[in-house]
Amino acid sequence: MKNHLIASAAVGALLSFAATGGYAAEAADASAEVDAVVVLGQGQSRQVQTVKEEELALEAAGTSPIKALEKLPGVNVQSADAFGAYEWSTGISIRGFNQNQLGFTLDGVPLGDMSYGNHNGLHISRAITNENIGRVELAQGAGSLETASTSNLGGTLQFFSRDPSETFGAQANGTYGSENMHRVFLRMESGAIEPLGGLRAYASVVDQKTDKWKGGSEQKQRQYDIKAVLPIGEGKLSAFYTRSERREQDYQDMSYDMIRRLGRDWDNTVPNWGLAIAAATAYNTGRPLPAPFATVDDAYYAGAGIRDDNLYSVSFDTPIGENFDVHIQGYGHTNEGQGLWYTPYLVSPGFGTPGSNAAPLSIRTTEYDIDRKGVIGGLTWRFAGHEISAGGWYEKNDFNQARRFYAETLTQLRDALDFQSNPFATQWQYKFETTTTQGYIQDVWTVNDALKINFGFKAVKVENEVATVVGSPLAGTIESKDSFLPQAGAVYQFTPDLEVFGGYTENMAAFVSAATSGPFGSQNQAAVNYIAQNLNPETSKTFEGGLRYRTSRFQGVVAAYKVDFNDRLVSAQTASPILGLPAVLSNVGSVETKGVEVAGEFRLTDEWSLYGAYSLNSSKYQDNVINANGTIASATMGKTVVNTPRNSVKAELSYDNGGFYAKLSSVYTDERYYTYENIGGKVDGALVADLVFGYRFSGGPLLEGLEIQGNVTNLFNKDYISTVGSGGYVNRDVAGTTMTLLPAPPRQGFITIKKSF
User: Fold this and answer.
1) How deeply is 321 buried, as exposed, middle or buried, from its count of CB atoms within 10 A (0-12, 13-18, 19+)?
2) Of 48, 190, 712, 741, which is least packed with CB atoms within 10 Å of its CB?
């Protein structure tokens, strides 16, 4: 059955390639670029795709742009909500590299590795509202040298905001849907203000709330975005500011054992405070747990992620004469965040004392405080077929992280979606200062009309310094440094329609500055000293190449790649995540990844188009994990990398006549493991479809600019596991008791009404 599913989906994905043979003879202008919302990287020496705003707009309102990239080859997106915005569950992996091994930027501003435990950035779903994104560019193998990232071992995602309009106007969108989801988006455009030199700007606000699809409570966010552009001569000054306030209630991490005993719709007990108190009381007094609990970890009262972010940037771009371009940019980011769980493992002070109202549980938080500032600059010089660019990036990041506990009462004092205050205990608190310096130089040489060659390198130095406020004493600096990380490639155009490309890139990922991961995650000075003296940062060497073909109605790409991932560092999960035990970082050897990606889009008629993509990936551990005494701690050699599907297939059929539009899309994701040894811990593959349809009105002031759009996610109500690894990965899970799975949401529907003025 599995092979049949793969074969059927692959046929759909590759139909677009077969169709091109009949069309080639009819093409009136074979050199014209296909009118597409996904551009497959023509002229690039790397595997690159760009998704335009028209495609992003087809997603359900509030959907993270990460989810819109799921259609691209080599990309695997997972989430426990319909929008791909619930950060605890949302993850993206590309060619076997997980999210914290990828690079992310917004208008050039680094977003860090977008990890849930913020330490050097923020998630794109908080950095900008999706209605204000103009395009997203994905480089599956390696980003460009100027990308401001120290985590992009694998691919790089660059998000670009929309510029303000030249004309005065407004946009108002309202959405309602499943689980009482409601969202309002408003944007005002100033248009070009000529007395102010043509300054144009927009300001927008969005407010979104939705109940969880299982369990109690809600997930909500309010976002403010402002952007301005001022022409200065032939250049421009750009600035943006975003403010995000996110409050999201968590879903309970599950295991296969829990799903068998309790069902996929089991969740934390909120709003049933009495059941949470009964379970915690039983655990702390040695009495039997209330039904249906088998262990106290089956459910907690609640968990939540609370984040407030401010992100801002000012940039200036201008030509100098005919041959020089200059770019300079300054940015800043502040974050205050708490990730919390109600834990029965530590009671509130006074519990058990006669007459006390103290609860047999407490609230455990991990708290984040980020203040980072940076500058990015670059110069481009064009002469005699050469385009030489050079530049640099500097950032200083002050990051404070703490683990605290807050008291609760039998009658419940606190709201899980509020920032907690007045802790009764601080387990640990550390201050981290990270200084990042990066420089690059590159030459893109247009040898002739057909051949273009690029070569360059970047140098990176990252210093991580730690100081203790509370907890086990930690001090010192760990450095990640490489002065020569080369990138080279070429693209050759055989005909106006057909080109071949290829490239080679080396990258390094800097050590992480956090008390919950990376070198300092052990919270042990001896371990930190050992890592500083003996462990190397993770590195990758990527080879890729392929063919691109395009006509006025078709574009397609076939690419192959091989990646050598060395000095792989793993923080071993030693217990249930709620216990918060220190992680132990170790070098567990290398990974070899190789694969093939195929994608194509064929515009059948002016109204109909067909898109397909297929990826074949083999990611294998090359070494066993060896203990200090020489014995095998984990027999991983030759095993498949966790959370890496071997096959993935995407297919879409779209219709758009200018008024009515519709798109049926499907994604097949092959089986995945959450066990390093591939013993137990296998999640079955799944074929999931989404549907979008809508109508754009016209014909008068009231109808002009009016649009209605419907979205149905998980169209056929597929029951499957989406997120794996939410609670970490383990060696094996024969009994299926590892709490690291999150089921996907059922079918949901949403209606959006849009009106532009």
Assistant:
1) exposed
2) 190
For the four alpha carbons of 70, 76, 82 and 85, in that order, the dihedral sign comes to negative
Band of the pLDDT at 19, cuts 50, 70, 90?
A: very low
pLDDT for res 750? 98
Element (H, E) at 701: none
**For 529-578, how does the pLDDT look when each residue is reduced to its tens digit (9 = 90+)?**
888 888 889 999 999 999 999 999 999 999 999 999 988 777 655 455 56
- Tokens 């670029």 belong to 33
Is the CB of residue 452 less than 8 Å from the CB of residue 502?
Answer: no
3-state secondary structure of 329: strand
| 21: number of Cβ within 10 Å | 9
For residue 517, what pLDDT is reported?
85
- Count of beta carbons in the 10 Å neighbourhood of residue 207: 14
CA angle 634, 639, 641 (to 5 degrees): 95
Q: Does residue 13 come out as left (phi exceeding 0), alpha (psi in the -120 to 50 range) or beta?
A: alpha
Q: What is the pTM of this model?
A: 0.92
- What is the rounded CA–CA span in Å between residue 751 and residue 450? 48
* Burial (CB count <10 Å: 0-12, 13-18, 19+), residue 735: exposed
Amino acid at 507: N
Residue type at 280 in one-letter notation: A
Per-residue pLDDT reduced to its tens digit, 636-649? 999 999 999 999 99
> What's the token pair of residue 687?
């074929």
Residue 610 has pLDDT above 60, yes or no: yes
Residue 390 Cα to chain centre, angstroms: 28
Contacts of 13 (CB under 8 A, 6+ apart): 598, 612, 613, 614, 649, 650, 651
pLDDT of residue 227: 98
Q: What is the maximal distance between C-alpha atoms in the chain?
A: 89
pLDDT at 14 over 50: no
- DSSP per position, 350-385: TTTSTT--EEEEEEEEEEEEEEEEEEEEEEEEEETT
Q: What are the tens digits of pLDDT across the range 232-261?
A: 999 999 999 999 999 999 999 999 999 999
Q: What is d(CA 15, CA 22) in angstroms, rounded to the nearest whole number?
A: 12
Nearest to 460 by CA among 378, 397, 393, 535: 393
Query: Could you give the CA distance from residue 224 to residue 439 in angstroms, rounded to a whole number?
Result: 33
* Coil, helix or strand at residue 4: helix
